[in-house]
Amino acid sequence: MFACFYNDEIKIGSLHHLALSFHSSKIEVKKILKVYKTSEEENANSSDTVMTLFSDNSVSLQSSDRIDSRVISTIYPPPTAKEVSFVSYCMNLDRIFLMLVNGTICVYRINDADTAILEKVSHSNMIKDSTGKAISQQVTSICFCNTVPPKMDIEVFNENT
After folding, report:
1. pLDDT tens digits, residue range 54-108?
2. Cα(36)–Cα(20) distance, integer angstroms
3. What is the pLDDT of residue 20?
4. Domain boundary assignment for the chain
5. Any residues with CB less than 8 A from the CB of 33 and at least 6 apart, and which?
6. Exposure pattern of 79-94 as b/e (b: 16+ CB <10 Å)?
7. DSSP 119-147
8. Per-residue pLDDT, 81
9. Predicted local distance difference test score (pLDDT) of residue 13
10. How far apart are CA 59 and CA 99, in angstroms?
11. Contacts of 76 by beta carbon, 8 Å cutoff, 6+ apart
């Protein structure tokens, strides 16, 4: 459900109705996201691509241009996938991340073809902590963030100095 203010009234609608303005589909929409390709786009809240997650676990990337709202690519999860719980685009890696309810993470690369390419599948038990041990808990969420490494004053010694 969503609500918006239009013509001095509050309009209430379904996410599916909003998605139909970009893409005609008989499948129910679960989530709509903007895809930012640069941090400048994100800061300006300006995106030319919209990502839609459907109830059949497929993901469609389409242009948000009102004149040419073409489908850029479609992502289909692996056949063993039960349900997609998270989908997001990482602008630094230029990849789409899908997380399934069992904690499996699927990484997709968008290409010029109609369907995205599955590059990597990582199960929860394959993820290691900083000491190299496999994590014992299931992955429940993913967050992309920019971090600046701390400044350290170090000296590098080698045999020649």
Report:
1. 888 888 888 877 666 678 888 888 877 788 888 888 888 889 999 888 888 889 9
2. 21
3. 55
4. 2-126
5. 50, 51, 52, 53, 87, 88, 89
6. eebeebbbbbbeeeee
7. EEEE-GGG-B-TTSPBP-SPP--------
8. 76
9. 60
10. 12
11. 57, 58, 115
